[in-house]
């Protein structure tokens, strides 16, 4: 078992305590590589060229 699976109860309790109410009832622990990595939001942005100095 992974550390996350062993500590599920503590993680759920901490999340609910931080929210002040029951918002988390269970965790879904996926094995590495089971879900695609999220795309970076800024990956599609082109690099910004610095403004040209006045001549």
Structure overview:
The structure is a single chain. The protein is mostly helical and 55 residues long. The chain has a domain at 1-30. Helix content is 29%, strand content 0%. The protein is built from two helices and no strands. It has helices spanning 3-6, 8-19.
| Helix coverage percent | 25-40%
Content-based structural category:
mainly alpha
Query: SSE order, as H and E?
Result: HH
What is the number of helical segments per DSSP (H or I, 4+ residues)? 2
- Biggest sheet layout: none
Oligomer: single chain
Radius of gyration: 21 Å
Strand percentage lies at under 5%
According to DSSP, the number of beta strands is 0
Mean pLDDT: 80
Low-confidence segments, given as residue ranges, are none
**Broad shape:** elongated
Calculate the terminal CA-CA distance, rounded to whole Å. 65 Å
In short:
With 55 residues, the chain is an all-alpha fold.
Defining key terms:
elongated; single chain; 55 residues; mainly alpha
Topology, please?
Blueprint: H1 3-6, H2 8-19
């Amino acid at each position: 078992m992974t550390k996350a699976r062993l500590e599920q109860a503590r993680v759920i309790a901490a999340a609910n305590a931080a929210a002040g109410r029951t918002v988390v009832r269970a965790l879904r622990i996926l094995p590495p590589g089971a879900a695609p990595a999220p795309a970076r939001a800024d990956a599609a942005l082109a690099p910004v060229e610095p403004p040209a100095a006045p001549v």
